[in-house]
Design goal:
By secondary structure, the chain is an all-alpha fold. The chain has 14 helices and two strands. It has a domain of about 210 residues. The chain is about 60% helix and about 0% strand. It is globular. Bound molecules: zinc ion (ZN) (2 copies). The site of one zinc ion has 4 residues, from helix 11.
Length: about 325
């Protein structure tokens, strides 16, 4: 049995898996939902003193009615479609039940599956970049997406504030397409545990890139290898998405923006505020005060990122 397998495998769950894989898959699918909702609660309940220290724009607060509206959309948008989607895609996952695996108690989950999970996130990033870009350049697509952009002061609670069509479109295009890719490759299907990791990441990353904080630690670390190779300002995922909500411009995804040059307004916005460009050295240096950005003499609040202005929105 692999070391990951021994960590994850519970004998009763193993029995359930063999008796009814679909129900077992549904049980696994609850993990991302529960973890992400808990993470949202934690991010929203951070004491005000710390929030003011970590927020990009501490003077701006979402109204009570916004918070109410976001919470109403959080539960249906996380639980219903995602659970349904995960159940639906169970057939194109790998259960580790290749010949001999279950018989000897192995779930066949190992390092390669974790690497596949990371690659799945990168494939999603490529796919979502093009989808999201189309949502901002095509009038019909934008109609579907614009509800999300009524959020001008994002918080973790607002990450699932998407229209019904927008939500399902994301699932079908962004997440199912990379899964179909794995399905067709000689590497084989994505392991269901890897899928659980990916979905936990998707929802947690969504919450923290909408947190309004300078740092999105889990997201930043996940993209660090790609950002480091590019050595360009792709490292600050939370401020980049904050900018996207504030001005409704540029920064459609993460590192894909740098590749396609759609981060120019964002880069300009940083420079206008005296922020240093992000380099490989600053990425490594910022890993230490990763969660608690320390004030920097160079740029003021937030390490090398710098302060955010309070210009009004340029577009709808
Ligand atoms: Zn957008
Ligand atoms: Zn957003």
């Amino acid at each position: 049995m692999s070391s990951f397998g021994s960590l994850l495998q519970v004998s009763s769950f193993s029995a359930l898996r063999q008796a009814n894989p679909r129900v077992a898959f549904a049980v696994l699918s609850c993990i991302p939902c529960l973890v992400s909702v808990s993470y949202v609660v934690v991010l929203m309940l951070i004491p005000t003193r710390l929030q003011n220290q970590w927020l990009i724009d501490p003077d701006k607060k979402p109204s009570a009615s916004e918070l109410r509206r976001w919470s109403l959309w959080l539960l249906p948008n996380i639980f219903m479609p995602i659970l349904g989607y995960l159940l639906y895609t169970e057939k194109i996952m790998r259960w580790g039940d290749e010949p001999g695996a279950v018989a000897n108690g192995s779930d066949g989950f190992g390092w390669w599956d974790l690497l596949m999970a990371w690659l799945q996130v990168q494939l999603q990033e490529i796919t979502y970049y093009f989808l999201h870009r189309a949502q901002h350049t095509n009038k019909t697509f934008y109609k579907v997406h614009k509800m999300h952009h009524t959020v001008r002061t994002p918080r973790a609670l607002s990450f699932a504030y998407l229209g019904v069509i927008d939500t399902h479109f994301n699932f079908l295009v962004t997440f199912a397409w990379p899964l179909a890719f794995w399905y067709c490759t000689p590497f084989g299907k994505l392991h269901v545990y890897a899928n659980t990791v990916v979905w936990t990441w998707n929802l947690v990353a969504g919450a923290e890139t909408h947190s309004g904080f300078w740092r999105a630690p889990i997201t930043d670390l996940t993209f660090l290898p790609v950002d480091f190779v590019l050595g360009k300002p792709c490292f600050d995922h939370s401020p980049a998405h904050y900018y996207h909500h504030k001005y409704n411009l540029g920064t459609y995804g993460h590192w894909m923006d740098f590749i396609f040059g759609t981060d120019t307004e964002y880069t300009q916005w940083r420079r206008e505020r005296g922020c240093q460009d992000i380099t490989r050295q600053s990425m490594v240096r910022d890993l230490l005060p990763f969660i608690l950005p320390l004030p920097s003499l160079e740029t003021g609040r937030g390490g090398t990122i710098g302060n955010v202005g309070s210009k009004g929105a340029k577009t709808e």
